[in-house]
Amino acid sequence: MTNSSDAIQTAESGTLRLTMAQAIVKYLANQYIVIDGEEMRLCGGGFGIFGHGNVSCLGEALYQHREELPLYRGQNEQSMGFAAAAYGKYHLRRRFMFCTASAGPGTTNLVTSAALAHTNRLPMLLLCGDAFMTRLPDPVLQQVEHYGNPTASVNDAFRSVTRYWDRITHPAQIIQSLPAAIATLLDPADCGPAFLGLPQDVQGWAYDYPISFFEKKVHHIRRVTPDQYELGAAIAAIKSAEKPVIIAGGGVQYSGAVTDLTSFAEKHSIPVVETIAGRANMLADHPLNCGPVGVTGSNSANAIAAEADVIIAVGTRLQDFTTGSWTAFRKDAQFVSLNAARHDAAKHRSLPVVGDAKLGLNALQAGLGTFETAQSWRDFAANEKTQWLDYVARNVDPANGPNSYAQVIGAVNDLCDDKDRVVAAAGGLPAEVTANWQTKAIGSVDVEFGFSCMGYEIAGGWGARIAQSEKEADQDTIVFTGDGSYLLMNSDIYSSVLTGKKMILMVCDNGGFAVINKLQNNTGNTSFNNLFADCPTITNQVEVDFVAHARSQGAQAESVTDMDELREAFKRAKANDRTTIIYIKVDPYEGWTQEGHAWWEVGLPEVSKDPSVREARVNWEAGRVNQRKGV
């Protein structure tokens, strides 16, 4: 392979001589998309940490395009991936960021974030270093050797957590692989992370690329029209319903079908319940918005789901937190699933409607004509919603016992601006946000509970803020995190300060992993190894000074003791121009949202010496009586 540092364009041949790394970056810089009538680059830039596996070749190429594709220096590869996922979610999967990491541990650090993006169906391009294709210097630094398979590398770990995977062994391969990767990132059905393994030597090899490969291309998101037969079966099922309900998932927003969903629900007077990913599909005060459904749901949504005879699932993969491990619905209820992905549309004996949510809702509405639910069903739903909102108001009230997640959420909810973006993930906070947050603006909530990944919160907040600042710079990104997630991954506080991407972090300290301690206790087990106080190997309990730690990273920070102080601190945080941390201690045992929980399947021991565990097993299994059997 001939190496050359010169990019030579030959008019006669119609080629451009570039290294493989240079060609990748040049191609990305020339991909565009139109969003709300505005043409912009499809790739918003990237997150990168350089090492020997990507600095000399890919780093050189990125430097040449640093204006078109801004590169954010991360502090941890995993958190870079989280930030990229949050960026893609903010842009409703219509734009993406790439992540680049060196060969070895830099790359393997991205596996978890790739899994998060895969689970949540979010676009992210991974450009990761790999071992030398020639094998002449083998074994090299950080190379994991497989004695019986020299072609294997740590990059093979990404096969199970990416939608598209390729290892580039010749520069010409990107002519096929890059468009295929981009197509995956933009496909409504197969959207997810795409991985390109870039061997260190091949990154620098040159090739005569067709000039046409780098021509500007403007992409669009495919909208698949549902099949008429499937529409007909779905319409017939809905017309036969006496008590239908709509489950609105994240796919509603990705399709840009929020207005269509509202129109459909209003036209036919059908109550709407939201999944965790679908939070903020409707405003809280809309009369047909009956709250979140499932394990972390609301009494109102779960009561409606339990009575419904037809469930119209739109843009949801029907995760167990939505379905209550398939106990939240009548066993004889008929599902109608409108989804761009065939895999999701066909779940659990559904009548599938494979296609775009926007087109599908409009087609269903046209086919249903004057169909409308009975007044008694509407009254039932409205009454359930009223009772739930009354409960939430009491739940977030500062007078409702010691400091709690719900009280913090209520105070912030009351004071935030309509379009402020809320980010939460893992632990107890996503459940509490889902149950108690009252949506003020469409698409303003990012609760990562698909992969339920601790550490997403702060990194995801940084990525969301980067995206938000491109569009709504005057709004804030508000992150809810517990002490556990903070301690796990906090370095993007520093990233946000360095890049001027302000966040407001609400750090709620309950002394460890309190929600898992609650699950441990609820399953009859003794508190063990979750709260710091219950770790027998801890011999010197030292409290972290979260305020000092945040300040050491350049952020503003203060500690508050109650909701009055928190409200004043939040006002100051809104006025600040720098990332601000508000720290408060919350009770690990009291103040949890007690209502709105569907049954959830958890594995419990069949045999145990502990009678409380045996009793919990019996009680837990009693909930299985309502579980639907299906695929």
Automatic annotation (TrEMBL):
CDD domains annotated for this entry?
TPP_PYR_POX_like
| CC annotations in GO | acetolactate synthase complex
Positions of the Thiamine pyrophosphate enzyme N-terminal TPP-binding domain: 47-137
Q: Where is the Thiamine pyrophosphate enzyme central domain?
A: 233-364
Read off the Pfam families from this record.
TPP_enzyme_C (PF02775), TPP_enzyme_M (PF00205), TPP_enzyme_N (PF02776)
Q: Does the keyword Transmembrane helix apply?
A: no
What's one GO BP annotation on this UniProt entry? inositol catabolic process
Q: Enumerate the GO terms in the molecular function aspect.
A: acetolactate synthase activity; flavin adenine dinucleotide binding; hydrolase activity, acting on acid carbon-carbon bonds, in ketonic substances; magnesium ion binding; thiamine pyrophosphate binding
Q: Which segments constitute the Thiamine pyrophosphate enzyme TPP-binding domain?
A: 443-582
Q: Which family does it belong to?
A: Belongs to the TPP enzyme family.
Quote the protein name from its UniProt record: 3D-(3,5/4)-trihydroxycyclohexane-1,2-dione hydrolase
Which species?
Answer: Cohaesibacter gelatinilyticus
